[in-house]
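My hope is that you will study the protein record below before we discuss the fold together.
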Amino acid sequence: MIRILDFFIAAIGLVLLSPLILLVMVLGWFDTRSPLFRQERVGRGQQSFILVKFRTMRLDTASVASHLADVSSITPLGHFLRRTKLDELPQLWNVLLGDMSLVGPRPNLFNQEELIYARDALDVYRVRPGITGLAQIKDIDMSTPELLAKTDAEMISTMSLVNYFKYIFLTFAGKGQGDRVRR
């Protein structure tokens, strides 16, 4: 049921938001000359997939988790995209393809071994990663791997249609700060 909802919401979202996506692409072109960011992430069953987002950092930024990146690497447009969570819009494509869900644990990098171990121990990788979820609503990011894995497992065990829509609604309502970078 969730996969069907994911597919239709992502398809409708991509169509309805295409003017905004196009605008951000154009602005991103002027900001970095490369508006889309692609990165290999850990997905369901610990399989790799390529996550797509709008670029918020300079091109020469190291490929690390956001909490390990330096705030000076975020572009002016990137600050706005992160604050408004518009940088996540291209992930609707990942949802449409089936690599992700709208709601689920945020997909991590393969070099985040402590988080992979903690999530694996709690069977978090049995579900598709998501654009938003309980950890994002609670402002828990990948800098606290044990707490994040525990929160992800809690979300998975209490997932329902009500919670699915609740997490989406709270994200749109501005709950949560998005991926943090160090100051």
Summary: The chain has a mean pLDDT of 92. Residues 115 and 145 are 5 Å apart (CA to CA).
